[in-house]
Specification:
heterodimer, A: 168 residues, B: 295 residues, alpha+beta, 25% helix
Chain lengths: 168, 295
């Protein structure tokens, strides 16, 4: 295993992974924990992942998504953060910021797989095929999860007719 | 209706917060000199597995000394150079709690946050400097997810750790953290009922006597709530107290009332993990539940 290669990979990937983690968890601290866990897994498999043709970044993101889905399934009845911790900065609640916070609050409440699809599609700009591969499901499942999530979030898209919202 | 562009913007939350890549890298892949220390920590845990509660040495507890405030912790040294810290009171200030731990030689800083009643006296969060070994940080992170009243960590370690403790809200103060812990774990609302590992029929009967409305759940299949229990044994229970929670932020379980009981088959791969939820590592390793604190 070439530790320097892993160092280089991790150092260059961490900023993007943390940002992805923040979108996925909507929690600064948890995002870093998620990246840390995923990188540890990637490091354990580095001898294989560093071979030509492998995609260590994709693997790391896959670990992050799966970890977050599993974690939320395990803890969804336990974690009820009702406010930010004291040391965290307070947002400037202008109207636009408040609207975004409202939207994020709704995203937080999405079931884990729906939230993952939303983040992969609207933060990572991943295609449904990529999302399906990463989450280990079919493209139709991705579309179904996305439609339900968007209906819950009251997001208007050309692909989501009004009746989807009404049936949600 | 909102637009997709608004959703994209909302998800970009946090993009402008700087990322300390070096710190994360150090945590994810500790430098080789730390390996030996990590090995000792693992060995310590293995030693706990063969120890009994009887040989744990209770060193001392904080007294009500001037300046240190009411005793906040019971600190025990466990086999393998491991220290267990129990929160016994949250009346002292965070500064006093920190000073009490320093008296024990533990370089730990305490912060407190107002929580709902069932999380008062539990460990809520951890942050640490980059030189804290990854094994310690991952162990603490895992322990704290269970909202335990007891945490275990090496008696000495490089780096500095900050731990958050839940305390009661002061009059008029808003809750900063709210959560649900395993009611069947030590300190939990139903711990002394000794319902863990019992059949759903037994548990349902007892909870009905206590006036609870029971919802049954099997997480593995995501059939979360049901009026009839799935097959298996009771592994965990979550008591909901709507007086303490802000309605609308309950998430997936907003239709839940009273107590949600989780039942799993012993053959389920997650059975062991779930039944020890909220227990400390040494309690898990001992394999038996100590009810001696119960009436």
């Amino acid at each position: 295993m070439d530790e320097r290669d892993f160092d280089d990979f991790a150092r260059s990937s961490i900023p993007g992974l943390v940002r992805f983690g923040r979108a996925l968890t909507l929690d600064l601290g948890r995002a870093e924990d998620l990246v840390q866990t995923a990188l540890m897994r990637t490091h354990q498999r580095w001898s294989r992942l560093s071979r030509p043709g492998q995609q260590p970044l994709g693997y790391t993101k896959k670990v992050m998504v799966n970890e977050e889905i599993s974690r939320r399934r395990r803890f969804s009845s336990r974690e009820r953060t009702v406010d930010e911790l004291p040391e965290r900065p307070t947002a400037d609640l202008t109207e636009g910021v408040a609207a975004q916070e409202d939207l994020r609050r709704l995203v937080r409440r999405l079931p884990p797989r729906q939230r993952a699809v939303v983040v992969l599609r609207y933060y990572e700009d991943a295609a449904d095929r990529e999302i399906a591969e990463l989450m280990g499901c079919t493209e139709s499942t991705v579309r179904s999860l996305a439609a339900k999530a968007l209906a819950t979030l009251r997001i208007s898209t050309q692909a989501v007719p009004e009746q989807v919202e009404e049936s949600a | 209706m909102r637009t997709e562009a608004e959703l994209r913007d909302a998800l970009r939350w946090g993009d402008d917060v700087p990322v300390d890549a070096e710190q994360l890298l150090a945590r994810a892949m500790p430098a080789s000199p730390r390996s030996r220390r990590r090995t000792r920590w693992v060995a310590g845990l293995a030693a706990i597995a063969t120890a009994t509660v009887g040989i744990f040495a209770l060193l001392s507890t904080s007294g009500g000394r001037g300046g240190l405030g009411p005793a906040a912790f019971a600190v025990m040294h466990l086999p393998g150079d491991v220290v267990s810290i129990d929160v016994v009171s949250t009346e002292a200030s965070a500064k006093q709690m920190t000073a009490q731990l320093h008296e024990y030689g533990l370089d730990i800083t305490i912060e407190t946050a107002a929580t709902n009643r069932q999380l008062v006296g539990t460990w809520l969060w951890v942050s640490m400097t980059e030189d804290v070994p990854a094994m310690v940080s991952s162990s603490l992170t895992e322990q704290l997810q269970g909202y335990t009243a007891t945490i275990e960590l090496p008696a000495s370690f490089p780096g500095a750790i900050t731990l958050g403790v839940g305390r009661a809200a002061r009059p008029g103060e808003q809750l900063q953290v709210g959560g649900i812990r395993n009611a069947l774990a030590p300190g939990g609302l139903l711990f002394c009922e000794r319902l863990r590992d019992r059949t759903p029929a037994d548990v349902g009967r007892r909870l009905a006597e206590l006036g609870y409305t029971v919802r049954w759940s099997d997480r593995q299949t995501r059939k979360r709530l049901s009026a009839t229990p799935p097959p298996g044994l009771v592994t965990e229970a979550s008591v909901y107290d709507y007086d303490e929670m802000l309605q609308g932020r309950i998430g997936d379980d907003e239709d839940t009332r009273d107590v949600q009981v989780i039942v799993r088959k012993p053959s389920d791969p997650l059975y062991e993990q779930q039944r020890w939820w909220g227990f400390s590592p040494s309690q898990r390793a001992a394999g038996t539940v100590d009810y001696s604190s119960c009436p």
